[in-house]
Specification:
The chain has 208 residues and is mainly alpha-helical. The chain is built from 8 helices and 2 strands; from the N terminus they run H-H-E-E-H-H-H-H-H-H. 62% of the residues lie in helices and 5% in strands. The protein has a two-stranded antiparallel ribbon. The longest helix has 42 residues. It is globular.
Length: 208
């Protein structure tokens, strides 16, 4: 899908306009992406650390109307797993490319050399990922936007606005809205995106 590829490429090369590696204004990401708060609970005279385990949904196969509803939920789940496996690697690529571009630009002082470096990165990214990204669906594109927020701690809109300015961010937001997506979407791992988070954790651990 061309739209998804363009968004990813924009995020990877957001430093083009600013020519800076400064990340002032981004969310504080000094804490790990996932952390757990242990609580002290006293039971039978002994104080032990405990953690609340989030509720998970277990789908079974039942007969009749309820069975068809459950089967439909299972099929939606398997489609979500498939789409996340398709989109998640590109969110990782975006994060890694952003880190690498910013680190390299910090070592290049000459503006001409910086532009030359960025052109090289652009050609490399197009050559390596364009064919794959063209095949992405709109659904996978929506998931990619969410996952980029998960990996970078910033929405796609915030990243583009920070490095390429408000006009460029508004342009890409308008394109996104045409395709029914929103670059301002935030990732909510303990709210509406909890199922996505659980699946991604299973992908990261190799269980899926």
């Amino acid at each position: 899908m061309r739209f998804c590829f363009s968004i990813l490429l924009s995020l990877i090369l957001i430093s083009v306009a600013s020519g800076q590696s400064d990340t002032t204004g981004q969310k504080n990401d000094t804490l790990p992406g996932r952390f757990y708060l242990l609580q002290k609970v006293k039971r039978n005279g002994e104080t032990l650390p405990e953690i609340e385990i989030k509720e998970v949904m277990v789908l079974g196969r039942e007969k009749g109307v309820e069975g068809r509803r459950t089967l439909s939920q299972y099929r939606k789940y398997t489609r979500l797993v498939y789409n996340l496996k398709r989109a998640y690697p590109y969110a990782i690529i975006a994060r890694m490319k952003l880190d690498q571009v910013n680190a390299d630009l910090a070592l290049i002082e000459d503006e001409k050399e910086r532009r030359k470096y960025l052109r090289g990165v652009e050609e490399s990214v197009f050559g390596e990922y364009e064919d794959d990204m063209r095949d992405m669906t709109i659904t996978q594109g929506r998931l990619l936007i969410k996952l980029i927020d998960r990996e970078t701690q910033n929405t796609s809109y915030e990243l583009i606005k920070l490095y390429r300015g408000s006009l460029t961010a508004a342009f890409w937001q308008a394109i996104a809205r045409i395709f029914g997506t929103n670059l301002k979407d935030e990732y909510d791992p303990w709210g509406e995106d909890i199922l996505i988070e659980l699946i991604v954790q299973d992908i990261e651990s190799g269980r899926l």
